[in-house]
Specification:
By secondary structure, the protein is of the alpha/beta class. The chain has 13 helices and ten strands. It is globular, with a radius of gyration of 20 Å. Bound molecules: S-adenosylmethionine.
Length: 338
């Protein structure tokens, strides 16, 4: 993979002027495009997103549902081509990969993975709900992760957090995944490094409920509350890695996110405060209270925001390195407690 690491210094922020506003945020697959063009997220989604690898990922970066379109009633179709009416409905609603999505929705309706009938599933998709929330799962880091309505759908770029965290862990070590959402990051790290002691936490009860279904089967623990508040006190000073894909969209720019994020993922999962870095500063401040000496904190950010994230780490006594991956279009800051 094309990862690059550079040491960050709080005193040498990159010029944000030199960077396009369209590179501001990496949280939504389509958002970079919609910042510069609010016309149609779908037509520009994939231009800024890494090549898709699965039908779900292809769909995620290429959908164009319009909530005002109506499918009418969708039935299962003929025995020869059960997906045909679904494809027509999705295509009419602007879904670019209608065939892939139709196959997934038909499979979900017939397998019992999703509780609704096919026509109900298609109606939800046509109304603009993210495919993953309808299916109840997302592909992430080679795993199928459970997803629930309103809970943030794990993005492929977050696999860089997984990679950076996993490379710093070994069996028996302790990982805390703050702002865990579905719990995807922690579960993916444990899949790579079995035997890691995993604690995941989130403030949103819907995310916590979803995370429990992903994290507990791999032996991890899920805690509900504000950042580190719900963590067991006996973890203090013995955490090897803290991961966080915390919200980092500046408040004023949430409105430019695609409808699938804006309307179907909880605001608390998106809004990072005035400059997007409110949570990063809080995580930087709390990290040293939990990490063992030499421990790390791995936080997803954007290329433009990385100097601010790194500066927060340095201000709280951590060293900071910025790691980017062009293939994933991802940036993380890795802080280390010396
Ligand atoms: C961008 S989502 C990322 C979820 C997950 N880490 C992932 O990558 O798929 C951010 C998550 O942070 C949680 N969150 C926001 N503010 C929080 C806070 N103060 N304390 C704990 N969790 C918070 C949200 O509920 C949401 O699940």
């Amino acid at each position: 993979m094309g990862s690059r690491t550079r040491e960050a210094s709080a005193g040498t922020p990159e010029s944000s002027d030199a960077r396009s506003a369209s590179t501001l945020c990496t949280i939504g697959d389509a958002w970079r495009s919609t910042v510069t063009s609010t016309q149609s997220a779908a037509t520009t989604d994939c231009a800024s997103h890494p090549p898709a690898r699965t039908p779900v990922e292809r769909s995620r970066c290429a959908r164009r549902p319009r909530s005002t379109w109506s499918t009418g009633r969708v039935t299962a179709g003929t025995a020869e081509d059960p997906t045909a009416p679904v494809v027509r409905a999705l295509r009419a609603a602007g879904c670019v990969f209608a065939e892939d999505e139709a196959a997934l929705l038909v499979a979900a309706a017939t397998s019992g993975d999703a509780p609704d009938r096919l026509d109900a599933l298609v109606a939800r998709r046509v109304a603009g709900e993210p495919l993953e929330q309808i299916l109840g799962w997302a592909q992430f880091a080679g795993l199928r992760v459970r997803v629930a309505p309103t809970v943030f759908v794990p993005r492929r770029r977050t696999e860089l957090v997984v990679r950076e965290a996993a490379s710093r862990l070994s069996p028996g070590r302790v990982l805390v995944d703050l702002c865990c959402g579905t719990g995807a990051v922690g579960v993916a790290v444990v899949a790579r490094v079995p035997g890691v002691e995993l604690h995941a936490a989130d403030v949103d009860p819907a995310a916590v409920a979803c995370a429990r279904r992903n994290v507990e089967p791999v032996g991890g623990h899920v805690h509900e509350g504000d950042l580190d508040a719900p963590l067991p006190a006996d973890l203090r000073g013995r955490v090897d890695v803290i991961t966080a894909n915390a919200p980092y969209v500046p408040t004023d720019e949430v409105a430019f996110m695609p409808s699938e994020a804006r309307d179907h993922e909880a605001l608390v999962a998106l809004d990072g405060g005035a400059d997007g870095l409110d949570l990063h500063r809080r995580i930087a401040a709390l990290a040293s209270g939990w990490l063992r000496p030499g421990g790390h904190v791995v936080v997803e950010t954007s290329e433009r925001q990385a100097p601010g994230t790194a500066a927060a780490f340095v201000a709280h006594g951590l060293t900071a390195s910025v790691v980017t991956d062009d293939d994933l279009d991802a940036t993380v800051v890795v802080g280390t407690l010396l």
